[in-house]
Write a structure and sequence with these properties.
The protein is 47% helix and 23% strand. It is of the alpha+beta class. The protein has three domains: 113 residues, Beta-Lactamase (2-Layer Sandwich); 65 residues; 146 residues, Histidine kinase-like ATPase, C-terminal domain (Heat Shock Protein 90, 2-Layer Sandwich), CATH 3.30.565.10. It has a five-stranded antiparallel β-sheet, with helices on both faces. The radius of gyration is 39 Å and the shape is rod-shaped. About 2% of the residues have low confidence.
Length: 358
């Protein structure tokens, strides 16, 4: 609904003032697309003058340079059917500007007292915006290509690491079979088992796709299932279970946690059950909250007091676990009251672990 404005008799004067006030270039056309009025910004931006604009056919402006197929489509087909159109994009060599991308907004104005119509046509230059978008898209494509190349290189590196670990493990096993000293054979087999453990951790992280954050539950479940398959014998069946929340941890820390779990589980399988028992059990538990987490490996075996001397006094595995715990800024505690419980806690509220943490 509109109402008359008191004191203004010349509507055309008001209309022209409104047109000149608009910041965007604006044309007022009649039904035959002849220019009735143009905004001041139209003259300034397209570098034309009123004498060669007013009363001229739009398509004839600038020696026919405004005879744009997209503009014809908008004015002759779309506007008659829809009355209005916003955001109609046209790319063209515009007079005085060069190659530009414009958004055209058009309105077909109908009058209650006349059968004639007037078309309002506004231009918005979005060339810079489209240029930024194209540059952003190009950058995104280049980034995706770099990430793809990085992933290929990472997979190749992981493949080579896995092959190297397998070669080392094979050499150690061959040496263990060849030596005559039982002590040397024991140490070579122990080293072989640790190389295999590192290979298991590496293979499970490789299966995660090289992502930065690893979901601990599935990771430890697969790792422990692999350890159980390769180390638990039929003569001494051991139930190895994993209980973990949905916590995520960085892939670099996941390597250390995987190695810790591997060492502790191997140690439990080797020494916790010197005699066969039906209820042999090893539980691996992981819980986390933000950057804090707690890991525990618990068995219901004989405990440290009845274990072998190497377990009582700490072997290579103990040294490895202590070094990894320190690297993770955690604290390790052990309890052999009933079986063996090894707990490792990383908390932002706790002081850093001491070098001789055990």
């Amino acid at each position: 609904m509109t109402r008359q404005i008191p004191g203004i008799e010349d509507a055309q004067t008001l209309a022209q003032a409104i047109v000149d006030t608009i910041h965007e270039p604006l044309l007022v056309l009649d039904e035959s697309f002849t220019v009735l009025a143009a905004s001041r910004s139209f003259y300034e931006i397209f570098q034309v003058d009123p004498q060669h604009t007013i009363g001229c056919l739009l398509y004839a402006l600038g020696d026919g340079q405004w005879d744009i197929p997209g503009l014809r489509l908008l004015l002759e087909t779309i506007i008659p059917e829809h009355t209005a159109m916003d955001g109609f994009e046209v790319e063209h060599d515009f007079p005085g500007l060069g190659r530009r991308t414009m958004l055209l907004n058009a309105r077909n104005v109908l009058y209650a007292t006349s059968s004639s119509t007037t078309i309002l046509l506004a231009f918005t230059d979005i060339t810079a915006r489209r240029l930024v978008e194209r540059e952003r898209q190009d950058l995104l494509e280049r980034t995706e290509e770099l990430l793809r190349q990085k992933q290929v290189l990472l997979q190749e590196m992981q493949h080579r690491v896995a092959n190297s670990l397998q070669i080392i493990a094979s050499i150690l096993m061959l040496k263990a079979r060849a030596v005559t000293s039982e002590e040397t054979r024991f140490h070579l087999k122990d080293a072989h088992q640790r190389v295999i453990s590192v290979a298991e951790v590496q293979s499970h992280l490789h299966a995660s796709g090289g992502v930065d954050q690893i979901e601990v539950g599935p990771y430890l479940t697969k790792l422990c299932a692999s350890l159980a398959t390769s180390m638990v014998s039929q003569d001494q069946p051991i139930s190895l279970k994993v209980f973990a929340d949905h916590g995520l941890i960085g892939s670099d820390k996941a390597v250390s946690i995987g190695l810790i779990v591997t060492e502790l589980v191997i140690n439990a399988i080797k020494y916790a059950f010197p005699t066969a028992r039906k209820d042999a059990l090893i539980n691996v538990t992981f819980s986390s909250q933000a950057s804090d987490w707690e890991l525990s490996v618990v068995d219901n075996g004989v405990g440290a007091a009845a274990s072998s001397p190497s377990v009582k006094h700490g072997g290579l595995g103990t040294v490895i676990v202590q070094a990894l715990v320190k690297q993770l800024e955690g604290q390790m505690t052990t309890d052999s009251t009933a079986g063996m419980r090894v707990s490792i806690k990383r908390s932002s509220l706790l002081p850093p672990a001491l070098d001789d943490a055990a």
